[in-house]
Structures are given as structure tokens and as C-alpha cells.
């Protein structure tokens, strides 16, 4: 089950205070404007009710796609690499100071995630790309949630949802793999657990596992049977044998949770898989009981000698004669070499670094307008650190767990 990520929020900054460029003086201003849009979009997304957030993910995705090429342009200017075929002369006036809310770190009960202050352009790039990967995971979660709704989707809708979810997970995997590889060159400890190399590597493995798990579960009939049991509009009962109409309270609570879509997937599908295991266990017990009854109460006319004689007679007097094929068991070393690894279905592609268009690079050669920079218009007072809730355990915020 896809994890229900919470998108982080960030404070306002101005790149014009940290960078100057003799070749493209408007680059810091345009980057500040694009970041201000991302900041406002993330804050508006957080204030939406959980039922309205999935439909707003496309807006967050568009803002991040607009902003991330500017970050790579700033990074190319600092490292001296060309961007869109042009050399960008960028000078660092002072270190970039950014604040992002750590949503993957540990926090006390009744407290909001604390902001982490970082001083590097790499931290800003990692948080922006990490947020983009989380948006992809949430989009995949929204697609898969349609398969568990009360109204059963059609076969075309099911295939479309599975294909879209698989693509989103692979896009998220390429981003996390890129970040984990780039973080290997760090010499200092990560300032936030969200961008720590072990966490990025784990998230890359989880997203690939989610994409692989979809290929297995899309043909599994038992999750569909659980969904059919949840579907109130199902007409299966009209031609199926009657069963005891009982449902436990925990199953009803899980059905309500899936219907609302808020915390669905927070337990990694443990309860849903438990219902599937219970159905399989009931099926196996029924089959085993049937075999046991046939062994305890054999047919009265059964004669073992007569049965063996009939088998041997059939083997030698049929036309053509029956043949029993016997094959030796190969050694385990050769079997292990031919067994699939379980992850050969997908071939993840590397993350393609987005670049600015040539006409956008050309326009940045003009001198900047002092009033053109946009740092965001959303008020920050609502997002400031809130006090401890009554009865909550006092926790110090902003400290790494390691």
C-alpha cells in the first residue's frame, strides 16, 4: 500500500541576496519568483481537507516542474558546467539559508513537524526533488485508491489506474535513486533526516517495490474478492450461495477508512492483507477437511488389489501405451541461477535533469527589475511553530534523531 506522505512547507527566501551573475543577472530573480510560487502552492495544499488534496496534486506538480530547472541552473553556474549550451557566471555572495519542515523525522504526540534550517543550495535542491518524488507517490496512491472504492471500476479504468500508478512510482524511484547517488559525495552529516543518504536509498527501494508489487497484485483474485465484499452495489449475492452475513467491527472500520481515503495505506496494507490471508486460510481448511473426510470414510466397494491391477492393466493395454515420464531433480546451483529475482519486470530509467529553455536563458541576460522578485504572498504566521497541545509530552524540536 502506498504510504500517505505529508508534503513539507518552506519559508520564503531571496536568491538575489546570495547570488550575483555577470552573464545572466536576472537568473536569481527568476529563481526567487519560481520558488515563491512553490511555497504558496504547498501552503495552500496543506490547508485543504484530505478529500480535496489529491485533486490539487497537479498544481503542486506544475509549480515544482517550473522551479526545479532554475535550481539546476544555479547549481550549474556554481560548478562551472554549461546550462542549455551557455556558460553561466555565478558568484556566491553569501551562503543560502533555507528552512524546510521535516515531515519524515520523529516528533512528539500532538506537535507539528519542526522546521530545519540549512545552509547550502544542495539542501534546497534535495528538498525540492524529494517533494516532487512524494507528489508522484501521492498521485500513484490516488490512482490505486480508485480500485478500492465502493463502486467497482470497469476493466478499462482498472488498467488505466494500474498503468498510471506504476509510471508514477517509477518516476519517484528515478528521483530518489538520483538523490541517493548524489548524496554519496557529501562529507558532512545531513542536516535533516528527510535528505539523509540512508533514507533516500530506502525510499528508492520502497518505490521500486511498490511498482513491482503492482505487477503481482494486478492478477491476484483475492484482493479483488475483498473489494467485491466491500462493494455495496455488487449483485454477486444474486447467484452465489448464501453465507453468514457477519462482519467484524475492525473490517467495518477499515472499509470506512478506505471510503474516506485519509489514512488509507498508513499501515502498509497490513489489515487488507490479513483479510486476504483469512480468506485463503478458510479455503485451505475447507479443502483439507474434504480430503480428510474422504480418507476417514472410504468407499465400501474399494479394493486396493483391484485398483492396482486396473492401473497396471491400463498402462500396458492402452493404444498407444501410457508412459510415465520420470525426470531427475537438477542440482540446486543450476536452479538458483535460472530463478527470477522478482524485480526483473521493471528497468528503471535514470532521472533526466531538467534544463531551462534557450529563450528563457537568453531573457535572463537582461538586467533584473528590483520589484520583479516574488517570494510568496501566503502569510507565514499560521505555519510558525505552535505551542505544545494540552496534555502533550514536551519535546524539543529541530534536533536530529541521530
TrEMBL record:
* SMART domains, per the entry: BRO1
Q: What are the BP-aspect GO terms? A: cellular response to pH
Task: Describe the location of the BRO1 domain by residue ranges.
Answer: 1-402
Residues in the signal sequence? none
Where does this protein have compositionally biased stretches of type Acidic residues? 372-385
Its domain of life reads: Eukaryota
Name the protein family: Belongs to the palC family.
Quote the protein name from its UniProt record: pH-response regulator protein palC
Q: Which organism is it from?
A: Pseudopithomyces chartarum
Organism classification, top ranks? Eukaryota, Fungi, Dikarya, Ascomycota, Pezizomycotina
